[in-house]
Design goal:
The complex is a heterodimer of chains A (420) and B (305).
Chain A: H1 4-11, H2 14-29, H3 42-45, E1 56-63, H4 70-89, E2 97-104, H5 109-122, E3 128-130, H6 134-146, E4 151-153, E5 166-168, H7 173-188, E6 192-198, H8 201-217, E7 221-228, H9 236-245, E8 249-253, H10 257-268, E9 277-280, H11 285-291, E10 300-303, H12 312-325, H13 333-352, H14 357-363, E11 368-369, E12 377-379, E13 385-386, E14 390-394, E15 400-405
Parallel strand pairs in A: 1-2, 1-3, 3-4, 4-5, 6-7, 6-8, 8-9, 9-10
Antiparallel strand pairs in A: 10-14, 11-12, 12-13, 14-15
Helix pairs in contact in A: 4-13, 5-6, 7-8, 10-11, 13-14
Chain B: H1 2-39, H2 46-67, H3 75-97, H4 106-128, H5 139-142, E1 144-145, E2 153-154, H6 155-177, H7 179-189, H8 191-196, H9 201-223, H10 235-248, H11 253-273, H12 276-293
Antiparallel strand pairs in B: 1-2
Helix pairs in contact in B: 1-6, 1-9, 1-10, 1-11, 2-3, 2-4, 2-9, 3-9, 6-7, 7-9, 10-11, 11-12
The chains are: A alpha/beta (420), B mainly alpha (305).
């Protein structure tokens, strides 16, 4: 009689199966025999069940790669990728290579929340780099707080928020606004301002802060304040109103496609830098691609970073960015802020000696990052960054001449007193 | 009387602005009025044909800049023609592949063309990148004309105005004086009878749809002078466009002209006296009230029901 069945029995015998399972489980248990990690044992750096092995740590990236916001978020995606690649080339974080799971928020806020939950709950990522609009950040915030995740958020924004689970690598409103207004007041003796914005939370909150500062500190006057729906394309009436009021400074926070219409129509109506001072906090190198430098030449923009910044860190950064994304790639303020995220996370993890979110958060305050392209930055206990603010003058080629830089780092103040 | 002459200058520029907004509204509504009004097809992808026109301009601008920079000051006129040709061809293709199967199901065309608009947006994004682009405009087009001291008339506004006038006049002539126009009007009134007297109604449909798309392409090229060129920049105009066509009375070209004029003036004047968002609310409220009183729109063609 053939004994074939016995052979089969043997192959799947319970004893063998148990052994195979145990062997497969070895790496998960961090048994040192098979470990090739240069860093400390996984069991010690990951006590909360994150997706960390001896050789790899998984992080999430959550931006809009499709939909209307892709226009803005593409730069952030690229910068975070570059930073992670550079960190991996240096040996990773705690001896572990970073692997990225990229999710697409698709410019839709509920999708952001759903993808955030997926990254935190199913993928168990150690941290997430992501979001761009305040709306998307507000949508994912409850998820990050409930699941105790970690988010590095790159955009300059209106402030009035602080979460244990979020680090804000862009500027909050007062950092960006106040010193820019002080500068223009000093330089041009400007006393009258016309405030303009797209109609949503960031421009409205920012203009509120600007108005308080103009009236209470600069003792100037706001001669007009106007808001236009997102996507508005006709600014002729507004331009005539500005001509009637003759403000010393137009203070503009127009975003998206409206931005392009606004500057093209200003130029066509004869409102150019030769006749009118304009200061904006919503135009970076990215926006100038669409507006065209020739249509906004000579106007001022207030940011913490410009691609043309002349320091060795930035030269290296711009070179690496162009090597990866092409010679015509441009880098705006938010792109640089997004680049900081992975580095700040790496430093905090290494200081904490752990990937555990609570320990990383605890290790973050007062961390200094001296190699930042924008120059030296420091994390404040309120999870925002100390940074300098700069004013750039728009050039024809879509870049900026940096005409002013605050002498000191400005302390972040997300809940400014007297500006609410 | 410095202030009085200044007031006059503002009034003059404001008047021009009203006409300028009118031209923009009318130019984008023309193509849609043709497709929606004459064929009854709700083309949600109209804005994307506009974007196709804008990107054609961008492509041509880049080509000219690279290969024949001496031609740069004049390329724009050719860009307008090229935008028409590309959008027309694409419209022809879309009608053949999709629209013709859906003529008896107007609600399905709404969904199908909305899907088409998403596909076109993402295609533009994949081909040209998600960022906005800026076609280099000829200098003469971007300046302002100063007929007197303190008055700046935007030349790009004038350009759009002239273009709109030519397009409208051309379309009205074509509809009411050409054989094609006769066929279109016959098909709209009674499709079965038109077929019976030997009009190839399918061909008329295809030509009408493609022509509507071509006009959107022209609008797209013209709007690069006053607005953004990006994958979604067409969608900035789509709501106002539908509003203009519906408010005017769907089947009437004259209605579209009148409605564009009314909406533009209301918007332009109210924006001067209040903030932009409130002006929009006021304009839309006015439209809603008038549409409640006159559901058929401003003008309607009387037909035996």
């Amino acid at each position: 009689m053939a004994r074939k069945p016995e052979l089969n029995d043997d192959l799947i015998s319970p004893a063998r199966r148990r052994m195979a399972l145990a062997m497969a489980a070895l790496p998960l248990m961090g048994v040192p025999v098979l470990s090739r990690a240069a860093g400390p044992a996984t069991a010690t750096v990951n006590t909360t069940g994150l997706s960390v092995t001896d050789t790899e740590v998984v992080v999430g990236q959550l931006h809009s790669a499709t939909g209307t916001m892709a226009i803005s978020e593409t730069g952030s995606i690229q910068a975070e990728r570059l930073a992670i690649e550079q960190i991996n080339a240096m040996g990773g974080v705690l001896g572990r290579t970073i692997r990225v799971i990229q999710e697409d928020g698709a410019s839709d806020w509920p999708t952001f929340a759903e993808k955030a939950r997926k990254l935190l709950v199913s993928d168990k990522v150690a941290t997430v780099f992501g979001c761009w609009t305040s709306a998307s950040r507000k949508a994912v915030l409850p998820v990050f707080e409930k699941e105790n995740g970690l988010l590095y958020y790159p955009t300059f924004y209106e402030g009035l928020e602080q979460s244990k689970n979020v680090f804000y690598t862009g500027q909050e409103a007062t950092q960006q606004i106040l010193s820019g207004l002080d500068w223009i007041n000093r330089e041009t003796k400007a006393k009258t301002f016309y405030l303009i914005g797209s109609d949503y939370i960031w421009p409205r909150t920012s203009n509120k802060i600007a108005r308080k500062h103009i009236e209470n500190v600069l003792k100037g006057e706001v001669v007009g304040e106007d808001y236009y729906p997102l996507g508005h394309t006709q600014f002729g009436s507004l331009i005539n109103k500005i001509k009637l009021k003759k403000p010393d400074v137009i203070y503009a926070i127009v975003v998206g496609g409206s931005n392009v219409s606004f500057y093209k129509q200003l130029k066509a109506a004869g409102v150019t830098a030769a006749k009118q001072t304009l200061l904006t906090i919503s135009v970076t190198e990215d926006e100038l691609l669409g507006i065209g430098g020739e249509n906004a030449e000579g106007f001022y923009s207030c940011m913490k970073y410009f691609q043309s910044l002349d320091n060795p860190n930035n030269k290296k950064f711009v070179e690496a960015f162009k090597a990866k994304y092409g010679a015509n790639a441009v880098i705006g303020d938010v792109t640089q802020a997004a680049y900081l995220g992975p580095w700040l996370w790496k430093m905090a993890v290494e200081k904490a000696g752990s990937f555990d979110v609570d320990k990383v958060v605890a290790a973050s305050p007062d961390l200094e990052y001296k190699e930042a392209p924008e120059g030296y930055v420091k994390i404040d206990p309120n999870h925002h960054l100390w940074s300098k603010t700069r004013v750039g003058k728009i050039r024809r080629d879509g870049q900026f001449d940096v005409v002013y830089e605050t002498p000191e780092l400005i302390k972040p103040d997300p809940f400014p007193k007297g500006y609410q | 009387m410095e202030s009085l002459s200044e007031f006059g200058a503002i009034l003059l520029m404001q008047g021009f602005n009203g006409l300028s907004v009118f031209s923009v509204l009318l130019l984008m509504a023309l193509g849609l009025a043709l497709i929606f009004g004459q064929m009854g097809v709700i083309n949600m992808a109209h804005g994307e044909f506009l974007a196709v026109g804008a990107y054609t301009t961008y492509l041509l601008a880049t080509l000219v800049q690279t290969y024949v920079p001496a031609f740069a000051p004049y390329y724009f006129l050719f860009a307008v023609v090229a935008a028409f040709v590309v959008a027309f061809a694409l419209g022809w293709l879309v009608e053949w592949a999709m629209i013709r199967h859906l003529y008896r199901r107007p609600l399905d065309t709404l969904l199908a063309t909305w899907g088409l608009s998403l596909i076109m947006q993402q295609s533009l994004r994949s081909i040209f990148g998600p960022r906005e682009v800026s076609p280099e405009m000829p200098e003469w087009l971007m300046g302002s004309w100063q007929p007197m001291d303190g008055v700046d008339i935007p030349i790009n506004g004038l350009f759009v105005m002239v273009l709109t006038f030519l397009m409208t006049a051309g379309l009205i002539l074509a509809l009411f004086r050409s054989t094609w126009g006769l066929h279109v009007r016959a098909t709209v009134q009674n499709r079965a009878m038109s077929g019976a007297v030997g009009i190839d109604t399918r061909r008329v449909d295809r030509l009408t749809f493609a022509l509507g798309c071509g006009i959107a392409g022209i609008a797209g090229a013209a709007f690069t002078t006053i607005g953004a060129t990006g994958p979604t920049s067409g969608s900035l105009y789509i709501v106002d466009t539908f509003l203009t066509v519906v408010f005017g009375g769907a089947a009437s070209l004259l209605g579209t002209v009148a409605s564009a004029f009314l909406i533009a003036q209301t918007q332009s004047v109210s924006e001067f006296f209040m903030t932009g968002s409130m002006a929009k609310v006021l304009t839309l409220t006015g439209i809603v009230i008038i549409l409640m009183l006159r559901p058929q729109g401003l003008f309607s063609i009387k037909t035996r029901k």
